From TrEMBL:
Annotated protein name in UniProt: Sugar ABC transporter ATP-binding protein
Domain of life: Bacteria
Residue ranges of every copy of the ABC transporter domain listed in the record: 5-241, 259-502
InterPro entries per record: AAA+_ATPase, ABC_carbohydrate_import_ATPase, ABC_transporter-like_ATP-bd, ABC_transporter-like_CS, P-loop_NTPase
Source species: Umezawaea endophytica
Keywords: ATP-binding, Cell membrane, Membrane, Nucleotide-binding, Repeat, Translocase, Transport
GO cellular component assignments: plasma membrane
Cell compartments where the protein resides: Cell membrane
Length: 503
């Protein structure tokens, strides 16, 4: 079959980095093509070249055999390339329906937007994909996952020959992920090609048939996915040998180093409206406690309550036995509690500051003596974390917004780690981080735990919870429904507890 999309020898350079270094990439109708590589390998850049966000410096893009060059994303969409980007980039202030039909609103005879029809059509379209929501609500009032689903429906409802998805599942709940997979299946049956970027191996092997591997802006492999074992694929992404990965790939994690010690953090009877109902948990120094549960079970709210960001109707948070002033984020931080938030765009990264500034931001008060901030000290810290987390930057003074998505996440993690907190609350810490760095992040958390850090780990990836946590607290509807440790830390038992069957 002739390729629907054919990229030859594309080069794209930014100041200081060759993001795409002669990449060729071919996609045939109906195939589900995985595009993989480490953080910063060039995946998003390739997609942006395909969709007219960036112009390539050289090379050629053919769509259905014809050379194309789009100057704007809507042109690519009109030509049949539809895209869901890594970060939701719809308009939060306008309604869900208006977002679905943005740029192609149904019109009345008089050329005015036909709101009634638009709302009706949007509702029908969304429920066709199992999404029931008030389409007149501003998009921004939906959860990040729901927004991503709206973006998905928008993308597949246009007449496309190719649908590109850049890490579509990173903010989705398991149920939404299933919906996404059925959408991919439907596209496949209709002969529409899908380009799928993800760091999650399970997903790739479940839905993709072809794979292209990028490394440092170069295409290093393309072919059927099933010809490669997972470990071979990872080795190719990282440019390491299979035996090397077998030896050093997995990180030991999860012994109970501090059994018997007094809790460093205790949350007692936290309640907040309908969201939290009498939640109690404690973490000893050196312990990693995982929070398991479904969307809306109160995981993020529990973390926010601990750090003082969620108003409480009742309950107390104690650090080292001393009660904190309720609802005071500053007090929590001074007591050594830090939180890595889930939504890095809204709550974390400051795009117009450099990588260095973003990293040392939270540690500045500790780094300054008599109001003077030692540049040397800053440099040392920044260097250490850039190396340890393998953050891909051309130099630390580069704007953080120029980093790839996964590398921005690492910068945030570095920010909280370098404040040497006593208690670290991590909400989806490795979301969007590639397999190599994931192991590094987990090893680093483990190391800090051995030095006495208490960690609360929220993750929707079962594997990460089972590998990473010493103990799991299971939440349902804002209440603790179970606690698992030791031999009970198995997937079956955790799933049963999440579903509400008492362990
Ligand atoms: N606008 C930009 N200005 C400068 N450098 C950029 C810009 N966009 C991307 N880069 C650089 O290009 C390289 C490739 O980035 P890209 O976003 O394509 O990575 P990626 O493979 O999508 O990674 P991730 O898995 O983290 O999303 C990185 O080194 C990144 O810092
Ligand atoms: Mg990317």
């Amino acid at each position: 079959m002739n390729p629907v999309l054919d990229v030859t020898d594309v080069v794209k350079e930014f100041v200081g980095v060759r993001a795409l270094d002669g990449v060729s990439f071919t996609v045939r109708p109906g195939e589900v093509h995985a595009l993989v590589g480490e953080n910063g390998a060039g995946k998003s850049t390739l997609i942006k070249v395909l969709t007219g966000v960036h112009r390539p410096d050289s090379g050629e893009v053919r769509l259905r055999g014809e050379v194309v060059s789009f100057d704007r994303p809507v042109r690519a969409q009109e030509a049949g390339i539809s895209t869901i980007y890594q970060e939701v980039n719809l308009v939060p202030l306008i309604s869900v329906a208006a977002n679905v039909f943005l740029g192609r609103e149904p019109r009345t005879r008089f050329g005015l937007v036909d709101w009634a029809r638009m709302n009706r059509d949007a509702k029908e379209l969304l429920s066709g994909y199992g999404i029931e929501t008030d389409v007149k609500r501003p998009l921004g009032t939906l959860s990040v996952g729901a927004q991503q689903m709206v973006a998905l429906v928008r993308a597949v409802s246009t007449d496309a020959d190719v649908v590109i998805m850049d890490e579509p599942t990173s903010s989705l709940e398991p149920r939404e992920v299933e919906t996404l997979f059925s959408v991919v299946e439907r596209l496949h049956e209709k002969g529409i090609a899908v380009v799928y970027v993800s760091h999650r191996m399970d997903e790739l092997y479940r839905i993709c048939d072809q794979v292209t591997v990028l490394r440092d802006g170069k295409m290093v492999h393309t072919g059927p996915l099933n010809d490669l074992s997972r470990i071979e694929l990872v080795a190719m992404m990282l440019g390491r040998s299979v035996s090397d990965i077998r030896e050093h790939g997995a990180t030991a994690f999860g012994e109970d180093h501090n059994a018997g010690k007094e809790p460093l953090l205790s949350a007692e009877n936290l309640s907040s409206g309908v969201r939290l109902n009498d939640v109690s948990l404690s973490i000893r120094p050196g312990e990693v406690v995982g929070l398991a549960g479904l969307l809306g079970s109160g995981r993020t709210e529990t973390a926010r309550a601990i750090v003082g960001a969620l108003p409480l109707d009742g309950g107390t948070v104690l650090v080292g036995g001393k009660a904190l002033k309720a609802g005071d984020v500053g007090a929590a931080m001074r007591a050594g509690i830090n939180m890595l938030a889930e939504d890095r765009k809204a709550e974390g990264i400051i795009p117009n500051l450099s990588v260095r500034e973003n990293i040392v931001l939270a540690a500045l008060p500790q780094l300054s003596r008599f109001g003077v901030i030692s540049r040397e000290k800053q440099d040392r810290i920044v260097d250490t974390f850039v190396k340890r987390l393998r953050i891909k930057v051309s130099n630390p003074d580069q704007l953080v917004s120029e980093l790839s998505g996964g590398n921005q996440q690492k910068v945030l993690l570095a920010r909280w780690l370098c404040t040497k907190p006593k208690v670290l609350l991590l909400d989806e810490p490795t979301r969007g981080i590639d397999v190599g760095a994931k192991a590094e992040v987990q090893a680093l958390i483990d190391e800090l735990a051995q030095e006495g850090l208490a960690v609360l780990l929220i993750s929707s990836e079962m594997e990460e919870l089972l590998d990473g946590a010493d103990r799991l607290v299971v939440l349902k509807d804002g209440a603790v429904v179970g606690e698992l440790s030791g031999d009970d830390l198995t997937q079956d038992k955790v799933l049963a507890a999440i579903a509400g069957e008492a362990p």
